[in-house]
Design goal:
By secondary structure, the protein is of the alpha/beta class. It has helices spanning 4-8, 34-39, 41-47, 82-94, 113-118, 180-196, 234-237, 243-253, 271-278, 314-328, 346-350, 357-369, 399-410, 415-425, 462-467, 472-485, 487-491; strands at residues 15-18, 51-54, 58-59, 71-75, 98-103, 132-133, 145-146, 154-157, 162-165, 200-203, 231-232, 261-265, 287-289, 335-336, 374-378, 493-497, 504-510, 515-521, 527-530, 540-545, 553-554, 557-560, 565-570.
Length: 571
């Protein structure tokens, strides 16, 4: 058992996400690996992050880059050995960095021995580890649910004459959490890694583990929102009837026996669910990744799902974040993120490329890191890396992107149209190699990388950023340092300001002794906003900004240049 003070430690932390395939390659095969990560730990220490979330490194056939696991206790051969893992973990701990592993237990790989057994016959002892259903009388799949990577969630299994369920690709069969043996296996594998010394887990689509069975043991049809197609299915499985029970059990059986940091990925989560799950006494996880702010720039209910884009209205973003800030204050804890390995690059998506790229990257960072919660930085975000736009579909690697291209072009959409969506929101935007320097292959590898480089690497790379005191990197470093220095960043109540302004994004953090005013102009036009009522004005001290101090103008009104950001301490 652990004390509140220890467990509370993650609330001061900033987390850095590593996508191992693209971080650093130590042996020239073009694929990032564990020794590569170990060789770059000084960089993370210089940035100041206290936690790493490492995307999956377990044995996997890589249908979905490691999110399809065939052995939870083995390291993927391409990434190295268990000895490499131990060395990496020790290197992190020596630098005061804690490690969160990715826990992918909504599904396994179809090559996991459990599934190989399970699919062989209905009487196999592992059959009930997965989710099976008979066809409808006409032979078609039992429900109208669409899988995340296109097609039906049901795939036919000849040896047993049944369909099996997979919310993602057919190579990612969903585990049956109703089966206590499955839950015990998950607890055991969590203990395996915690006993090795890891510090916690990021839990992949964890709010999908409880499925909505009816009294007859059947799964219901999804409401028809698009005639003639399969229907969106996440709403059917997210936050299922036994989710909280399963998570509480996991807390009791495993998490409470270690000093852990946990964050659950939770598509479609509402603020109420966020409160329930992250409540320190009655909940089960420290934080959630909610998605509401990731869905504001796509057209809801469209047959193309996330690929149907629309412009972000910053008023929606402000309102969304404010809701989460207010709802969880004092009762739970937020995670704060703009990017990860599933999202496009935040500066391309929410900021601007071109001459104001760096300034806008800093504006986004300031606005996000000033809120209450634990900020997450996705590798390369601290450099202000932008999206890529490969012309040829052959240059993409991501299963979601490739399947969307195939299906959308078959439906008659033009190559140009489909590529525009892929350039905007494809997951490979975030998966190009981390640029370490301006040398060959950006210092990521001595060989040909598994996916193309971002063409901006000669300018946008870690070595250049570390050498430039005005870089995005150093701005992040300062934000991380400020969070440790000013308790108001951790504890202060959030108050949204200028809610109706389409450009000026700002809020106050109201602490016991100080008020913090955080303002970003999220547009390429200058803007003016009145000094907010209730924020003291006698002593205003600038903690951080993204312009030369001489260029600031604040008085009874704030005159903001394009993408200007300020963090002001007001007394
Ligand atoms: C999560 C992961 C994503 C993966 C999916 C299936 O959303 O972040 O990369 O494809 O789950 O595991
Ligand atoms: Ca390698």
């Amino acid at each position: 058992m652990h004390f509140a003070a220890e467990r509370a430690d993650w609330r001061n932390a900033v987390v850095y996400q590593i996508y191992p395939r693209s971080f650093c390659d130590s042996n020239g095969d073009g694929v990032g690996d564990l020794p590569g990560i170990t060789s770059r730990l000084d960089y993370l220490q210089a940035l100041g992050v206290q936690v790493v979330w490492l995307s999956p490194i377990y044995a996997s056939p890589n249908d979905d880059n490691g999110y399809d696991i065939s052995d939870y206790r083995q390291i993927m051969a391409e990434f190295g050995t268990m000895a490499d893992f131990d060395a990496m973990l020790a290197g992190m701990h020596v630098r005061g960095i804690r490690l969160m592993m990715d826990l992918v237990v909504n599904h396994t790989s179809d090559e996991h021995p459990w599934f190989v057994q399970a699919r062989s016959s209905r009487s196999n002892p592992f059959h009930d580890h997965y989710i099976w259903a008979d066809p409808l009388p006409d032979g078609s799949p039992p429900t109208n649910w669409e899988a995340a990577f296109q097609g039906s969630v049901w795939t036919w299994n000849e040896p047993t004459g049944e369909y099996y369920l997979h919310m993602f690709s057919a190579k990612q069969p969903d585990l049956n959490w109703e089966n206590p043996k499955v839950r015990q296996e998950v607890h055991a594998l969590m203990r395996f890694w915690l006993d090795k010394g890891v510090d916690g887990f990021r839990m992949d689509v964890i709010n999908m583990i409880s499925k909505p069975w009816d009294a007859q043991g059947r799964l219901p049809q999804a409401p028809v929102v698009r005639e003639g197609f399969l229907q969106p299915s996440f709403a059917m499985t997210c936050n299922g009837p036994r989710l909280n029970e399963f998570l509480r059990e996991m807390r009791n059986e495993v998490l409470d026996h270690y000093d852990t940091i946990t964050v659950g990925e939770a598509p479609l989560a509402t603020v109420q669910q966020g409160r329930d799950i992250t409540h320190p006494q009655t909940g089960s996880l420290n934080m959630l990744f909610q998605f509401e702010h990731m869905d504001l720039d796509s057209v809801g209910g469209h047959v193309n799902g996330k690929w149907a884009r629309k412009a972000l209205d910053w008023r929606d973003m402000k309102a969304c974040m404010a809701r989460w800030q207010e709802a969880l204050h004092g009762t739970g804890w937020n995670s704060l993120y703009f990017c990860n390995h599933d999202q496009p690059r935040s500066v391309s998506r929410f900021g601007t490329m071109g001459t104001l790229r760096e300034r806008s990257a800093k504006a986004l960072a300031t606005w996000l890191h000033g809120m209450q919660g634990t900020p997450y930085i996705y590798q390369g975000e601290e450099l202000g890396m932008g999206n890529v736009a490969f012309d040829r579909i052959e240059d993409y690697r991501d299963i979601e992107t490739l399947n969307f291209y195939r299906v959308a072009t078959a439906r008659g959409q033009s190559h140009a149209d489909v590529m525009a969506s892929i350039h905007a929101v494809g997951r490979d935007n975030a998966r190009t190699p981390m640029p370490w320097n301006s040398g060959p292959h950006a210092g990521f590898s001595t060989g040909q990388p598994w996916i193309g480089l971002n063409p901006d690497c000669p300018q946008v790379n870690a070595e250049a950023a570390q050498a430039d005191p005005n870089s995005v990197f150093h701005h992040y470093r300062q934000l991380i340092a400020l969070r440790r220095q000013w308790p108001v960043l951790r504890d202060g109540r959030f108050q949204l300001l200028w809610a109706e302004d389409p450009q000026v994004c700002g809020y106050a953090r109201l602490g016991a002794e100080q008020t913090l005013l955080v303002v970003s102009n999220m547009s390429g036009q200058s803007a003016t906003a009145p000094w907010p009522e209730g924020v003291p004005f006698t002593q205003v001290h600038c903690l951080l900004s993204n312009l030369d101090p001489a260029d600031h103008a604040w008085g009874r009104a704030l005159h903001l240049q394009p993408f200007e950001a300020l963090m002001l301490l007001c007394r």
